[in-house]
Design goal:
Rossmann fold, 7-stranded mixed sheet
Length: 158
């Protein structure tokens, strides 16, 4: 299923993240894609606050830390793969360990995620329209029928 929304502001995007959070049950991947400044971290703020595991202001771009962990009644990992260039970089994040326990894993720059899992995935594409306006497309399946490459395929490329 695919849904498209228009956000007119950061508050709208945070609200959409909260609405999405209400439908998430661990284990689940929330795969965020879109250009720089399209609202991926803003949507993550809504998801984290909507899940009740952190306040909006606690959610920052994990570009330098790469993985932030939040927890209360469930674990939430906020991952940024912007600086990940190859499988070796991805391996250093220990995401295989993260995927070993039920959690909500929010992945920014999802197109760089090459680990395969049988977890359900929600794919969210954010697109900058103009000013504060964003187009947000949500799919509850991988856009490509084959899904992301398997772990063994990714290792072969490394």
């Amino acid at each position: 299923m695919r849904s498209e929304f228009i956000s007119q502001s950061a508050d709208d995007t945070i609200g959409m993240g909260r609405n999405l959070a209400a439908r998430l049950t661990p284990p689940v991947l929330v795969m965020l894609s879109g250009e720089l400044g399209s609202g991926k971290t803003t949507l993550a703020k809504g998801i984290v606050s909507g899940l009740g595991v952190g306040r909006e202001e606690e959610v920052t771009s994990p570009t330098f830390t790469l993985v932030h962990v939040f927890h209360n009644h469930c674990r939430v990992y906020h991952v940024d793969l912007y600086r990940v260039e190859d499988f070796h970089d991805l391996e250093t994040l220990a995401l295989e360990d993260v995927l070993g326990e039920p959690a909500v894993v929010i992945v920014e720059w999802a197109e760089r995620m090459t680990l395969r899992t049988d977890w359900p995935a929600v794919y969210v594409h954010l697109e900058h329209v103009d000013g504060d306006t964003r187009r947000i497309t949500i799919s509850d399946f991988w856009e490509e029928a084959a899904g992301p490459p398997s772990l063994s395929q990714a290792k072969e490329k490394a």
